[in-house]
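Below is our example:
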Amino acid sequence: MLSVCIPVYNKNITPLVLELSRQIEQLGASVEILVLDDGSSQAVIDARSEIKRVRLIRNEDNLGRSKARNRLLREANGPFMLLLDAGSEILNSRFLGAWIANLQTNHALVYYGGSIYQPVAPDESHYLHWKVGSGRESKSFAFRQKKLASFKTNNTVIHKQVFSELKFEESLVQYGHEDTLYGFELSQRNIEVRQVNNPVRNALKDTNEQFLKKTGLAIENLVSASDKASSPQLFREFVKLFKAYERIKRWRLLGVISWLDGVMLGWLEAQLLSGNRLLILLKYDLYKLLVLNRVLGKEN
């Protein structure tokens, strides 16, 4: 059995669940849809929609991404569990069929199907999220096959055997990078993430302001994740942002970074909030480096 596991908070996911249910009916396969409402204040599935093979469970309080995923994976009938974000859009009319075919013909324990963003740039107010997502997060199947891509939980299949040994770190309650830590721990156990060409489309929901706020929270969580890793030193060598910071530290340029923090951080933030497209990814990378330096400075 394949268990489709969807954590959701304050979002109506009826269209997503209806499409999954339709595909299950066509397949006639043993697939369940398991939805975890993580303490939402609104309905996540329309009460009048008649959706088959859906099991809805609920947390009374919002417990965060790690705890939500762990509960879903515990509750799933498995043995394979497909994690989908609530904002995912199914692009392939045979999406579930393609997953089942891959699971029947391959012998891996973890698979990643990929994710993409809309091909057309949005207006300036949402441009930052789209540019970072499409330019940095979304990688083609060919790229993912050739290079080790960052681990993402959206559209990932995990076997229960893996989950019995490795769970998401529940002490990471803030936004971001719990999947980075999980991917690191998979690599430490020499568990391959098999790449599959079966992407979903990510929702483009965050304004520049919302996305930048999440970036700050994610960097704070990344520092916390490094402390929780089985090897904090190897984790920092595993993460590109940490590697860039350590390189600057070896070159004895942290003073320059601190100086840039004072003279440029506000300007960079204004540029990113405005949706100014000129060198936006370079500005975003520098912004993250300055924020990381500030977070590490507070820690020390």
In short: The first strand starts at residue 2 and ends at 8. The beta strands are 2-8, 31-38, 54-59, 80-83, 89-90, 110-112, 115-116, 156-159, 193-195, 200-201.
